[in-house]
């Protein structure tokens, strides 16, 4: 065989490969990793935002140690306490008085002492009660003071205490060890109960009058998405006694019929006197309620990245973004809250915070028809869930952990509980294309900063957003998802919802969300002004025999709290704003407008014995004088005693003058949810998003976003392909880089 031709061919092949490699390397180099530029903003506050910072784990531990050593009573760890014990239910930041904070922030005054608020359950004493103690100064506590009477006008009765996790565990043990065994044939043959095959969901409130602690517990198959797997059995437990051995069953409900207790149900079953509707046992994944995708993986969904790194910064609890700065925190009970919100260096709001999330249910089953969940009592902050990178927030968002102390004497960590990111909303904030007279295009991408947390309270997941826009607007938004709560489908169930599966009734319910918005527009003292429109008839000046209907501006100053309280379904002025004592260049009072987006259902009738506990939901907007003794619109104690509410918002509105005063807007938004078949496997956020906007109204002399670095403008006479004319033309150079995606991790199933 002649080897020479083979060697020649091999040499030519190698040369060809080498030439191709050279061409590829010279024609298109692989993009480099995106390089981060430092944010343009600088922190000039020198740690002032820390006055609003959440307690650290070390501070919480110091508070617990101090209370254990200085109250003169034995404190049992709340994670294992009996109702008859003393324990620390929660420890949170005691936010200093506003006047103190403003002296510190604006007037060079001393930093307010750092303090904690401890909620204490005193069950082991002659007069059991709930006490709130302020403990300070941190980090080394030396004093505590009881503020319960100061805040609520008296001691908080013990029956009002929010239910601890350990009490639910004790009730579960009571059902398993004493209640279910009293109906062995029914539980085995109908429920197919094996000791762990049923899940329990609480109703609330707990009874019909003050002092009651009698709760309906609804039974479901213990599978994935159990909320839509009712089995038809509900048990009313009287757990009002501090002696667990005295707990008892008051009623039992099964498939439309009521029984005195499980013994009577068992007797009726054995004698064949009940209508049995046996539910087919679902697989562990829940079958129809499983959220496992039903489709294979395909092309990857779009992702966003920052080619030159984040344009915002987060230092401790302070966020800086373009002209914005604000401090953030997480309340154990009410969740995400913001303080000292400034635009272009000037404070526009002192506090924006969630107050409450309320759901009122209808059903023909007892648990459903008696449910009015006030989620602040369960803990919107405590139930903030770990965020999944790439789904709950953009993959490259900044993720922050949260520490809290509740239902235990040891603080707990929720990883990735908050995310912060800048989002290109995919549409212009403003634009104009001119093809008349001069020819040009001008526009600004709508890129906004989002701060987000998601609270999973039982079946529902609430996505809480605060959004900061380049034109000086702030948006508060909540999106609801998770599973619909359900009842067992029987009888006239279709009067109360839609049938979602064979035995599942998706029950009608309302969602009401309340916010506190403490605007300080051009200073602390503001007035409330309403602008709207009315049509007037006018003669045409050029043709007096003709008439024109023309809209004109109407103006009114709302002088009192009564005038500023707008009922839920009433007509409200379309432009309502906090007005400053200063004017802009054009002689108008500088203001920030409140614009609400809501599709709320009806409020519970005011004749209801529990309505005062949720009387904030009467109003879509109520503006009151700001008072330190009215810090929140509700109380964590209202859930378990709504008949004698610890805080009744209706009492805040007493016709005081609100002209040139420090004012607070209490905003209620919400929607009616009638679950439907598309809520299976669970509810989507689309269409279930409500909230409010705070928008500059003559606050500036012109739109401040004109000073944004993101603006685009070019004329027909300019070279719009040149980078110095049009920054979009530079994208092949400035944005052709590889984002650095960190490895996916998730700690959401740790420390449950």
UniProtKB/TrEMBL annotation:
Pfam families on file: Cu_amine_oxid, Cu_amine_oxidN2, Cu_amine_oxidN3
Modification(s) after translation: Topaquinone (TPQ) is generated by copper-dependent autoxidation of a specific tyrosyl residue.
Chain's gene name: Aoc3_1
Ranges of residues in domain Copper amine oxidase catalytic: 304-706
Record's keyword terms, sorted: Copper, Metal-binding, Oxidoreductase, TPQ
GO biological process: amine metabolic process
InterPro entries, alphabetized: Cu_Am_Ox_Cu-bd, Cu_Am_ox_TPQ-bd, Cu_amine_oxidase, Cu_amine_oxidase_C, Cu_amine_oxidase_C_sf, Cu_amine_oxidase_N-reg, Cu_amine_oxidase_N2, Cu_amine_oxidase_N3
Family: Belongs to the copper/topaquinone oxidase family.
Top-tier EC class: oxidoreductase
Active site: 375, 460
Transmembrane segments: none
Name the record gives this protein: Amine oxidase
Gene3D superfamilies: 3.10.450.40, Copper amine oxidase, catalytic domain
GO molecular function terms attached to this record: copper ion binding; primary methylamine oxidase activity; quinone binding
Cofactor binding comment, as recorded: Contains 1 topaquinone per subunit.
Modified residues (2',4',5'-topaquinone): 460
Domain Copper amine oxidase N3-terminal: 161-256
Gene Ontology CC: plasma membrane
């Amino acid at each position: 065989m002649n080897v020479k031709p083979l060697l020649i061919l091999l040499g030519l092949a190698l040369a060809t490969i080498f030439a191709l490699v050279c061409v590829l390397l010279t024609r298109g180099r692989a993009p480099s990793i995106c390089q981060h530029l430092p944010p343009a903003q600088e922190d000039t506050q020198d740690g002032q935002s820390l006055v609003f910072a959440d307690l650290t784990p070390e501070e919480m531990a110091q508070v617990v140690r101090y209370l254990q050593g200085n109250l003169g009573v034995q404190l049992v760890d709340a994670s294992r306490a009996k109702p008859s014990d003393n324990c620390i239910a929660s420890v949170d930041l005691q936010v200093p008085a506003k006047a103190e904070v403003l002296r510190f922030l604006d007037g060079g005054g001393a930093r307010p002492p750092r303090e904690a608020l401890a909620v204490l359950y005193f069950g082991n004493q002659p007069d059991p009660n709930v006490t709130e103690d302020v403990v300070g100064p941190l980090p080394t506590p030396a004093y505590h003071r009881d503020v319960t009477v100061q805040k609520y006008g008296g001691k908080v009765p013990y029956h009002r205490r929010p239910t601890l996790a350990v009490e639910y565990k004790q009730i579960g043990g009571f059902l398993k060890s004493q209640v279910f065994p009293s109906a062995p044939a029914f539980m085995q043959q109908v429920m197919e109960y094996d000791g762990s095959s049923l899940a329990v969901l609480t109703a609330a409130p707990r009874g019909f009058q003050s002092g009651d602690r009698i709760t309906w517990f609804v039974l479901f198959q213990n599978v994935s998405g159990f909320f839509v797997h009712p089995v038809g059995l509900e048990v009313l437990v009287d757990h009002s006694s501090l002696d667990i051995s005295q707990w008892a069953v008051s009623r039992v409900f099964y498939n439309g019929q009521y029984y005195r207790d499980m013994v009577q149900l068992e007797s009726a079953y054995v004698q064949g006197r009940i209508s049995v509707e046996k539910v087919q046992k679902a697989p562990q994944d829940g079958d129809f309620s499983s959220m496992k995708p039903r489709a294979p993986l395909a092309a990857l969904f779009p992702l966003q990245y920052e080619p030159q790194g984040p344009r915002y910064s987060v230092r401790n609890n302070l966020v800086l973004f373009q002209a914005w700065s604000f401090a953030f925190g997480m309340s154990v009970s009410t969740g995400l809250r913001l303080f000292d919100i400034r635009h272009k260096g000037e404070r526009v709001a002192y506090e924006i915070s969630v107050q409450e999330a309320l759901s009122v249910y209808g059903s023909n089953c007892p648990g459903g028809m008696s449910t009015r969940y006030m989620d602040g009592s369960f803990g919107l902050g405590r139930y903030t869930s770990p965020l999944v990178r790439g789904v709950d927030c953009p993959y490259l968002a900044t993720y922050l952990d949260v520490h809290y102390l509740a239902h235990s004497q040891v603080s707990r960590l929720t990883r990735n509980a908050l995310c912060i990111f800048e989002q290109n909303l995919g549409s212009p904030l403003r634009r104009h294309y001119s093809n008349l007279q001069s020819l040009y295009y001008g526009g600004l991408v709508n890129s906004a900063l989002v701060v987000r947390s998601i609270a999973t309270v039982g079946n529902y997941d609430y996505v809480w957003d605060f959004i900061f826009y380049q034109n000086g607007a702030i948006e508060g938004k909540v999106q609801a998802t998770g599973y619909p709560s359900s009842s067992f489908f029987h009888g006239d169930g279709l009067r109360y919802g839609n049938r979602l599966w064979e035995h599942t009734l998706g029950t009608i319910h309302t969602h009401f969300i309340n916010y506190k918005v403490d605007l300080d527009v051009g200073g602390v003292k503001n007035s409330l002004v309403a602008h709207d429109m009315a049509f007037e008839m006018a003669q045409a000046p050029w043709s007096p025999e003709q008439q024109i209907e023309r809209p004109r501006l109407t103006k009114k100053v709302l002088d009192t709290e009564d005038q500023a309280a707008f009922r839920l379904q009433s007509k409200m002025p379309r432009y309502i704003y906090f007005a400053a004592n200063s004017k802009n260049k054009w002689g108008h009072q500088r203001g920030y407008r409140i614009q609400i987006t809501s599709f709320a259902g009806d409020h519970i009738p005011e004749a209801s014995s529990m309505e005062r506990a949720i009387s904030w939901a009467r109003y879509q907007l109520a503006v009151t004088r700001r008072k330190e003794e009215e810090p929140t619109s509700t109380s964590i104690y209202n859930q378990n005693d709504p008949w004698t509410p610890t805080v009744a918002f209706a009492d805040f509105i007493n016709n005081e003058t609100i002209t040139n005063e420090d004012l607070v807007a209490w905003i209620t938004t919400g929607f009616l949810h009638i679950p439907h078949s598309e809520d299976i496997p669970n509810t989507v956020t689309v269409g279930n998003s409500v909230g409010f906007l705070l928008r500059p109204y003559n606050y500036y002399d012109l739109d401040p976003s004109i000073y944004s670095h993101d603006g685009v403008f070019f004329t027909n006479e300019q070279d719009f392909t040149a980078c110095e004319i049009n920054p979009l033309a530079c994208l092949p150079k400035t944005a052709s880089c590889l984002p650095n995606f960190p490895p996916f991790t998730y700690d959401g199933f740790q420390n449950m």
